[in-house]
Amino acid sequence: MLEIDLNYATKPHWHRHDKEDEFFYVVEGLLVIDLEGRSVELLPRQGFVVPKGVPHRTRAPGKTIILMVESSGIIPTGDGA
Question: Looking at the domain 1-70, which fold is it?
């Protein structure tokens, strides 16, 4: 288990993962995943897969607890995007 303070006072950055999908599951709060052309809002007990190669950014308007499932080799900030 890993806890990260993403400090959303700064602007979330766009990135992508070229070789891996990324799964987000909300335990508590609200997570917004911005994709090109749309945004997905996740509430508690909802999940979403960002397919590999898709530019995205995540943000939360308040305290949010999420579960992220990704391989150990993934770079959280993206693969050179």
Answer: Jelly Rolls (2.60.120)
Task: Read off the pTM.
Answer: 0.78
Residue 53 CA to residue 51 CA, distance in Å, equals 6
Residue with tokens 């891996």: 20
Name the pLDDT band for 8 (thresholds 50, 70, 90): very low
Confidence at 64, pLDDT banded by 50, 70, 90 = very high
* Alpha-carbon span 39 to 70, nearest angstrom: 21
Task: Compute the distance between CA of residue 1 and CA of residue 12 in angstroms, rounded to an integer.
Answer: 22
